[in-house]
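User
Class, as today's exercise, I want you to study this protein, comparing sequence with structure tokens, and judge whether sequence predicts the tokens.
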Amino acid sequence: MFCRRSGRALEEMTLGVALASFVASACSSPEEDTPMPTPAPSEITCSKNSARFVTHIVDHEFGSGQTAGQEDFPAPVLGPPEGAGCCQGATSGIVSLGNGGWVIVGFEDNAIVDEPGPDFIVFENAFFVGGSEDSVFAELATVAVSDDGEHWVDFPCSASEPPYGQCAGWHPTLANAEENELDPLNPAEAGGDLFDLADVGLPQARYVRITDRPDLDAGLDGVFDLDAVSVVNAACPGASE
């Protein structure tokens, strides 16, 4: 038997459905329904101090284990890299982050910007054992970038065997301003691990976070030793007069 609803009943039912839909929408998680928008790039004021290498540490936390360079921190990670070449790792001018340790670095009056090709380089003291590219002494870390220090995007780092993808810590540092003329801002000759903001969909980044990955240390050689970070594509390409 079918019953015909009155007009008033239909109106009440429709109102109830609409109200339930509104409540469900209001209570749902914004992360589930709407992706967080990428913040607009911050404005950068270029100056004579605009830097292409790390000038300051925003925050850090060292992990357990190796402590090389920590007594002089942050000095060893400021400025250009001090690479030891393809076949031996530098023992000075680096800071060990320790197991699971991390550091956030910044660049005075400057930012990394997304342009064609690699946008910045992270330098570690990895090297090729016996000169063989098939035998790399790797110490891995995840690299993340942010323009405001709050919203972070990680480059994917999950490979526990070579090639290590977008992890840092597996390409030797070749440039050394005190010992050779290799340009630490030139990805073709500097060495180190190259990163492109286009890979994570970020137009600009003022900060770089580097986190040691002890979970990927199976068969590897220790904790991440940070040497330097250079800005290849910069909001302020050079210091202004």
About this structure: The first strand starts at residue 56 and ends at 61. The mean pLDDT is 85. The chain is about 10% helix and 20% strand.
